[in-house]
Write a structure and sequence with these properties.
The chain is mostly beta strands and about 750 residues long. The protein contains eleven helices and 41 strands. This is protein-glutamine gamma-glutamyltransferase.
């Protein structure tokens, strides 16, 4: 037996308790990465040349007595920089454009003898090389990336013009004034009153977001009143939205969003990086972002998406609670993202795409499964087409792409598919989408599919095999709308995304898209000689109505069609909730004739199943007996809700009290419970709401609210009513406020 000692097993060390250690950059880099605009470094008030025993007396040298940031709403800095509408106690300016500050010294400034600088600091690790510490000098002999010059002197006061670089970091800066003495540098103490915000500048030619169109700038940067389009392609509805980008606290909330994302301060001068990061941060799925998406119809623990009237409540709640806000759907994501972009100075607009395909595999195809007889199989049909989808466009140059692909870029905050591991989309060049250049970043292929997918009908045999029987190449991306600048009308911008259907340019684009991996269905299918048309309908919630199917026989022989007509309550995303109608008539059409088949739809069959936005989706499919060809048509019917009425009384003058009265009558035979009414208006009223536990059938509610206009001009007041069994009820009134 060996005399060697044997190892005795011992118990593993106890598991550590308490929170894990905070991971830092210590040991990796001498200066930690600054990723929060709210963090700041303390700059010493005195930096000696050498190592004196104490701070020497400096009374005989130049000293700073006062600094005036010229930050009042009616002063030149804010007027010249188009920031006078921001409700803030701080100076807000735009990069690439001069602003002025007044410095009062203890004596007359002598350019030949005195040396001073105005210093700007952002983040916790200011460095000159990173652009987070920027000294600005008053003489041409010594300049930094930001230009400085003395524009006026008077006694002991110097007015200095400062021009931030057109690509500088966007955010909140601290400002100091530093004076050189024989003993060292002496600077002002930290004073929050000298903090300032620097934004993107669409008025500056050297800025990446420069937009050389004053009408577009007024709309896409300065306008707070939005119109968002929804409904159906042939029954367009619209709702008002208060972007509120100038409201108190909104700018800080937007910067907080970037802080929450831990985006490095040094990246915050590039609009491409900022918009891509914000696209991820507007939803909460993978980064604790601003909004929680909910399409279930159950909004018990939050605010229903249809109830919001503007972005202010959402952004301020997020900044205060530091928790995602419940709930959102695509137009809420787009509206709040629009506020974020406009607030930071990036031109932006909300866009609505009707019949928007959600393509998750890049095949440019939406599949609808039919059985052997031509009936739509809703159980096996997994793809859906959104009745509409809202996203944003923002305007910027794209130096990373070839010339011509700058301008409007698609960014989308609604979480659909991941991009580089996170739920986000864009910025994708609209020009790249139109020309099929899907290799260009970011996510151009996904947006291309949203507006260009084919709808392919498949016949499924009993053995499970499927054969394409019909392709509709024009259904998806039927129309793309945004608000007209300076007006309350809509603008059709479909041509900016697509060439005309069937044109030579369109064929070239589709071929190019296929080169980048987007495969289309190329089946050569016979075209049926019977056309089926479902006309547009305008129906109110609670109405019985008739669905007319018009058959047109283009042949010189009789045709017999075995039809299947299915109607379902659907979410606006195209996802079916309940089937409320099924009919299978046989229709005979004479040679070169037309026949109309009428199907009755009763409200009792759909009312109890309705979800928000009250959409009914009808699919009519059938097989022609004589030819075995398939005929099909789809129709979305957006049921119209009752309206709120808003009336205002008073003089309509700045700072004079007015009254807004909201009225609503319940037109239904059932009670409305847990009713929320919300109201707000740009320059008129901060967001307010009122709760009603019950609005009985046939009864009315009246809510009167006092408000005081804060500025002159044309504006509007918006209101919504929302409860579990009635969504998307709204109203608005236009007001002109006199000075």
């Amino acid at each position: 037996m060996s005399d060697r000692p044997t190892a005795t097993p011992s118990a593993p060390p106890p598991a550590p308790s308490g929170p894990p250690p905070k991971v830092t950059s210590r040991g990796r880099t001498t200066v930690p990465v600054a990723n929060s605009n709210s963090d700041s470094a303390d700059i010493p008030q005195f930096e000696p040349f050498g190592s004196p025993r104490g701070v020497p007396p400096l009374t005989e040298y130049l000293d700073i007595w006062d600094v005036d940031m010229i930050k009042k709403q009616d002063e030149n800095n804010k007027l010249d920089h188009h920031t006078e509408l921001y409700q803030s106690d701080y100076l807000i300016v735009r990069r690439g454009q001069e602003f002025q500050v007044k410095i009062t010294f203890n004596r007359t400034y002598k350019p030949a003898d005195d040396k001073f600088a105005v210093e700007f600091v952002i983040g916790s690790s200011p460095q000159y090389s990173k652009g987070t510490y920027v000294p600005v000098y008053p003489t041409k002999e010594r300049q930094s990336p930001w230009k400085g010059r003395i524009t006026h002197t008077s006694d002991n006061q110097v007015t200095m013009g400062i021009t931030p670089a057109a690509n500088c970091i966007v955010g909140k800066y601290h400002m100091y004034v530093a004076v050189a003495t024989p003993y060292g540098i002496r600077r002002t103490t930290r004073d929050s009153a000298r903090d300032l915000y620097i934004l993107f500048n669409p008025w500056a030619a050297d800025d990446a977001v420069f937009l050389d169109d004053e009408e577009e700038r007024k709309e896409c940067v300065m306008n707070e009143m939005g119109i968002i389009y929804h409904g159906a392609f042939d029954d367009i509805a619209e709702r008002d939205w208060n972007y509120g980008q100038f409201n108190y606290g909104v700018l800080d909330a937007c910067l907080f969003i970037l802080d929450q994302s831990e985006m490095p301060i040094t990246n915050r001068g590039d609009p491409m990086i900022v918009t891509r990061q914000a696209s991820a941060m507007l939803d909460s799925l993978d980064d604790n972002g601003v909004l929680v998406g909910n399409w279930t119809g159950d909004y018990t623990y939050g605010v229903a998406p249809t109830s919001w009237t503007g972005s202010t409540d959402i952004l301020l709640t997020y900044a205060t609670s530091k928790m995602p806000v419940c709930y959102a759907q695509c137009w809420v994501y787009a509206a709040v993202f629009n506020t974020f972009l406009r607030c930071l100075g990036i031109p932006a607009r909300v866009v609505t795409n009707y019949y928007s395909a959600h393509d998750n595999d890049g095949n440019l195809r939406t599949d609808i499964i039919l059985d052997e007889n031509g009936r739509a199989d809703r159980q096996r049909t997994k793809d859906s087409i959104w009745n509409y989808h809202c996203w944003n466009e923002c305007y910027m140059s794209r130096p990373d792409l070839p010339s011509g692909f700058g301008g409007w870029q698609v960014v989308d905050a609604t979480p659909q598919e991941t991009s580089d591991g996170m739920y986000r989309c864009g910025p994708a060049s609209v020009q790249a989408i139109k020309h099929g250049q899907l290799c260009f970043p970011f996510d151009a292929a996904f947006v291309f599919a949203e507006v260009n997918s084919d709808v392919v009908f498949y016949s499924r045999k009993k053995d499970g095999t499927m054969q394409p029987v019909k392709v509709n190449k024009t259904h998806v991306g039927r129309m793309i709308l945004t608000k007209t600048p300076g007006d309350v009308t809509r603008r059709d911008i479909t041509h900016q995304y697509k060439f005309p259907e069937g044109s030579a340019e369109e064929r070239t684009v589709l071929e190019r898209a296929e080169d980048y991996g987007c495969k289309r269905d190329k089946s050569e299918l016979p075209v049926a000689d019977v056309d089926l048309v479902l006309p547009a309908l305008e129906i109110s919630v609670g109405d019985d109505f008739e669905l007319s199917l018009e058959f047109v026989n283009r042949s010189d022989q009789q045709r017999t069609v075995d039809m299947y007509v299915s109607g379902s309550v659907v979410y606006y995303t195209g996802v079916s909730k309940n089937e409320i109608l099924f009919k299978n008539p046989t229709v005979k059409i004479g040679p070169s004739a037309s026949v109309t088949e009428v199907i009755s739809v009763e409200s009792k069959n759909y009312l109890k199943h309705l979800v928000e936005q009250a959409n009914l989706h009808f699919i009519a499919t059938g097989k022609i007996k004589e030819t075995s060809h398939i005929v099909s048509a789809m129709k979305v019917v957006s049921l119209r809700n009752p309206k709120l009425t808003i009336e205002v009384s008073g003089e309509g003058k700045v700072h004079e009290e007015m009254v807004a009265t909201v009225q609503f009558t319940n037109p239904f035979s059932f009670n409305l419970e847990q009713v929320y009414v919300r109201m707000e208006g740009p320059g008129l009223m901060v967001p307010k709401f009122k709760y009603y536990s019950l609005v009985a059938a046939g009864s009315s509610l009246t809510w009167a609210e006092y408000f005081t206009p804060q500025r002159a001009g044309f504006t509007r007041l918006f209101a919504t009513l929302d409860c579990p069994n009635l969504r998307q009820v709204y109203g608005q009134v236009s007001i002109t406020i006199k000075p």
